[in-house]
Amino acid sequence: MTATATTTPPPAAPKVGGKGGRTRLSFPMVLLIISGALIALSAVRVISGAQDITSSGQISAALSLAVPIGLAGLGGLWAERAGVVNIGLEGMMILGTFFGAWAGWQTDPWIGVLAGVLGGMFGGLLHAIATVTFGVDHIISGIAINILALGITSYFAKLWFNSGEASAKGGSPKQSPPSDDIGTVTLPGLSDLFRTIEKKEWFFVSDLAGILGGLVTNVSLLTIVAILLFVGTFLVLWKTGFGLRLRSCGENPIASESLGVNVYKYKYIAVIISGGMAGLGGAFLSLVTSHIYNEGQTGGRGYIGLAAMIFGNWRPGGLAMGAGLFGYSDALQLRNGGQSVHALLLALVIGLVALAIWKYYRKSLVQAGASAVIAALVLVWYLGTDTVPTEFVTATPYIVTLLVLSLSAQRLRMPKADGMRYRKGQGK
Q1: pLDDT at 90
Q2: Of 24, 154, 308, 413, which is the most buried if we count CB atoms within 10 A?
Q3: How far is 291 from 7, CA to CA, in rounded Å?
């Protein structure tokens, strides 16, 4: 079956600045927004009595859950900055979970990490061959990789984990034997200090101590690697000539080719790195989060990572914030269930009121009114209940994903040639 794809548009000069350009948030403004969010959470903790929402345990769990989402999103960022949509992140994560666990239980967990990365890169290579070389529609190729990865891992799990030594050590057709722990790092002095302040339950100060304590207590070594990859991605893509050429392939490959850039090469590099990042996220799930491979372990995190990347406007900093938000909501429903999620409703009311005020200030009266009405309805829900249904608690991360994407959709700016078909020689 042959898939049709959109042809790359002719060169067009991008808008830079001016009245129609987007306003980029300054660093002080970002700090102000973060401080405002922390004050809101402190107020919610005091009013609702849900002490866990800013505890060090909550933040530590959120960080652990955010890393695989962030790595999947980082993979999507590499691919889409080069103009290739990567819906196959979920499948590449699945390959990472399987091959990471397979190598990890037999040898060393760090070798498992490498195997997981290579498994994801294999998925990225397949996606690059299909989309870049043969011009297959990016969405179709990504979905095919997701299906293929699920089939491959299910087959090999039955073949490798259900007999012999693997079976004797706890393996089954849907599960691998456990692997050793990668190891964690704790800053003893700071960790103890933050824990002491957190127990005081002071407004804002104890909340800040709980957040910082969660970031310096029992942090996996692989989490530190992930943080370095975020920093490295920003430096490579935005501070080097290589990154400029790669991003130009996602903005206008025809113009890039006319300037001597090998567009195919950069797209291949980007998509293979994309697969490696997603595979690393999968390996994190099987080697750090649970120490075993389980069928269905990714749980849609590849798609959530893609949503985090879109929320972050195709930039590492925004992506990290999005992954943190999704990881936080996931940890909230896992740790304390209905009570903490019920408290989150009050935080949602505060956020919607702030949004309504901002939209009113910007003269967007319809959006301001809609935000105010929704805030009132959520407040009524909060005041009229003591908890939320179990079904709603389980769906919290996915509901947060939809809300964040719907609220941030108006400020997004994707690479101009993202997902469009490119044929070599169009720039000549």
Answers
A1: 97
A2: 308
A3: 45
